Amino acid sequence: MMRPMQRRWMQPGRGSPRAQRGRRGWQLALVVLAALVSAPARADVVDEAFVRGNRAAEAGDLKAAVQAYEEAERLSPGTSALLSFNLGTAYAQLGEVGMATYHLRRALRAQAQASAEVAAAAQRNLGVVRQRIEVAALANGAQTDRPETWRDALLAAVGAPGFGWLALVAGWLALVVVLLRGRLGGRAPGGVVGSVIGVLVAAYLVLGGLHGYAVRAESEAPQAIALPTKLEVREGPGNHRKVLFVVQGGSRVRIVDRGSGWLRIRLPDGLEGWAPQADLGELAGAARTRS
Amino acid sequence: MRTRRGFVTGLVAACAASLVSGLARAADRASVATELDRLSVEVGEAFEFTVQVEYEGGGEMPEPVLPNFAEMGLTLAGPPSMFRSSGSSVSFGTGRNTVMQSRTIQTYSYTLIPSKPGRFSFPVHVMVGSGKVAAPRTPVLEVTGTAAVAEPIPGGVGGPTEAQGDLFLWTRLDKSRVYVGEQLVYTLEVYERLPFPNIQLRALPGFQDFWSEELPEGDQRTETVAGVPYRVHPGLRRGLFPQRAGSLTITAAEVGVGMRRRVRGRPTSIEVLPLPVEDRPADFSANNVGLYTIEAAVDRAKVKQGAPFTLTLTISGTGNIRVIDPGAWPELDGMRRYDPKVETRTAVGMRLGGDRIYQFLIIPERAGTLTIPPHRFSFFDPATAKYQTATSKPIEVVVLADAAAPAPSPAPEPAPVAAKGAAKSDEDGLLAPLITPDTLPRVTNDGSWLTPGRFAAGMVLAPAVLVAATGGRALWRRFGPDEASRASAARAARQRELVAQAERGVATGEGFYPALAQLLQALALARAGAQGQGLPRRALLDLLARRGVTAPDLERLGRLLDRCDAARFGAASEGPGERKAALDDGLALLRRSSLTAPEGA
């Protein structure tokens, strides 16, 4: 279909020179546009690994699916909420609640920019995995974190970058209004301007304070997930140290100190001890894969 | 000088050579001396035997050759203590060679405890070269009393019937014949007539064929044995569970009185019967000998489907409760059971017993009234010499349907590979399925631009800018331009305002001429200065002429002002073009004319 058209375009003497220049310009623009549009849609190695994982999962080979998904994660780390969701779900189907929780939580991070569909599915699977963790903790006599409270949800929400932007915009807008109040005074009622400034300053202080608190809490004691089924927590950094308690895999812990290859962790009820760094997945860190 | 120095040097060298060449080592010589700290002791009473070896010579110190203590029934109480002293001397002979002598004295001290009476001598010698040097005197020790009995006596509940000196040990068993696994209480008592201050158990009795559990010791009491009053100390109390049938022996215990005396008890034997074969249940375990009951309980009688609850089975009774074998757990219909947490609470009184508690986590997998069947286990009651069965009561649990709650996973641990297919089919209804598009949606950058540092800077910078602006405004007011500059600026602003008003009025004429007239009037007054205030127009123009304003500019100014008056008071009507031309004239006067020249120019 394209050949006659191209031949016709290439035939000399058809139309005026201006018309020919116009056609060539359109042709060039179409080629560039086609290149720009088709570039992101072209399958790359990440997509190939992802599709390979999907097919393995459909065939019931969850181990192969996890391997393929992890390969995609290594090729393009932390860039896809959907990949984290599929990886976490595959691990959940394999019964590895620690890795499942880790990847499902990563899918729900604000930075992952999960779609509504992925976020809803990840929340659902996280709830299922959570129930398994609680049952396993009861059966194993292991420690686990308490279920998320409204405070956890609030901290997670206000820790999102959007809240920070809101606080900043409110603060700078209040500043602009204050500085221009003299000029606006003649055109807008003084009470309205004052109210606007009050609302903006309140938003600046409240939102900014909450966001700062959440960011500070996360940076001082970042969250991590216990990856093995049972994580032995010791009184000091070293395998020769006494085991204080056992944490059920998939539990959320806070990292309060770091040693050489070991992390000091704290459970929400205050229990503290040391665990190998390799057995903990930091949610804010680089993506952890098994292989 | 050289001759004298050489002479002295030669003399010293000759003396040294003479000393070295004349030095001879004395011949090796040794002697041995032995000593006992007492000549007579009783069986079990420690004594000290000292050996001193004196050796002169350059060779190795010879070791003393001791008599065989074991054959003499002597036991070493700890390692021997040793002490060594040595010295050297050089004797310069007159007409003979110079002799250097080296002497070493080594002292050995042995603490020995006799176990049998008799008269024992202690010959000791040392070997020097090929020669034997014996002690000049051989000490002899008289041991009195009776030897410790090595043959076991049958155990029993009775006490001693005859006095045995000022201190002896006595063993009691609460039974003389038991079954395999049956509890037997062993008691070791110390009988003393005198208050010995420091009695310690030096050697425990041997319980090789028994499972042994400590029991609390009894109280001290006084007892009369064959008319002799004794104070009886409880030394040891154990609950014993024989592990095999036959005649078993519990070896003797030994106590020490300070460091000087040992007292040994007598071994005890007990007859152990095998468990009867008749009527033995098929599920019987040899660990279950005693008297037991079993109870079952749940922490909740009504639960939701999929919600865990705890089933507690408690086996209580008297016997070796730590090793009780509950047997196989019954199958639970509609429920999943996890491995139990096991706890043992021993009750140690006169006999060993207590509770063995098994706590199961149960997950009901379907709704309805589910029954936990009774659990049975068999044991052998030695009191009646019969096998018995303990049975718990069945328990009903009401399970409420909960469609929202997903059924629990098959196992908390990773499922085996072979079971994954089946597990997956169960989980498909629980877990949201995988999302499998052909391409993977990705975000370009993982990290947010708003890092904590940038956020903090932005938050701090806003109030900082406000403070800086407020401060700058205050400084401007304090150190800003003077009155004349401000007045000039105000005039310029007023001019801009009037020009803008005139420009807006060009099209319609509304407010055009008043604005233009005010603009020109203000221009003329500014040029004329204070003297121009309140003057009529002609006088003002004359004043301006005197101030250096050129005639054409004055004429143009006067004409424009007249046009403004005419338009304002209705004497003339002009169109937009004429108003535009008038405005341009006015602006020309304002910007490029002698009217705008400074007063001092």
Write the layout of secondary structure elements.
The complex is a heterodimer of chains A (291) and B (601).
Chain A: H1 2-10, H2 17-41, H3 45-58, H4 62-75, H5 81-94, H6 97-107, H7 116-140, H8 150-158, H9 161-179, H10 181-185, H11 190-220, E1 223-226, E2 230-234, E3 243-248, E4 252-258, E5 262-266, E6 272-276, E7 280-282
Antiparallel strand pairs in A: 1-4, 1-7, 2-3, 4-5, 5-6
Chain B: H1 2-22, E1 24-25, E2 29-36, E3 40-42, E4 47-56, E5 64-65, E6 74-76, E7 81-91, E8 99-114, E9 118-121, E10 125-128, E11 131-134, E12 140-144, E13 153-154, E14 167-173, E15 177-179, E16 184-192, E17 199-203, E18 210-214, E19 221-225, E20 228-242, E21 246-250, E22 254-257, E23 261-264, E24 268-273, E25 290-298, E26 302-304, E27 309-319, E28 335-337, E29 341-348, E30 352-364, E31 368-372, E32 376-381, E33 386-391, E34 395-400, H2 420-428, H3 452-479, H4 483-505, H5 512-528, H6 537-546, H7 551-568, H8 576-591
Parallel strand pairs in B: 1-8, 3-12, 13-24, 15-24, 26-34
Antiparallel strand pairs in B: 2-4, 4-8, 5-10, 6-8, 7-8, 9-12, 10-11, 14-16, 16-20, 17-22, 18-20, 19-20, 21-24, 22-23, 25-27, 27-30, 28-30, 29-30, 31-34, 32-33
Helix pairs in contact in B: 4-5, 5-6, 5-7, 5-8, 7-8
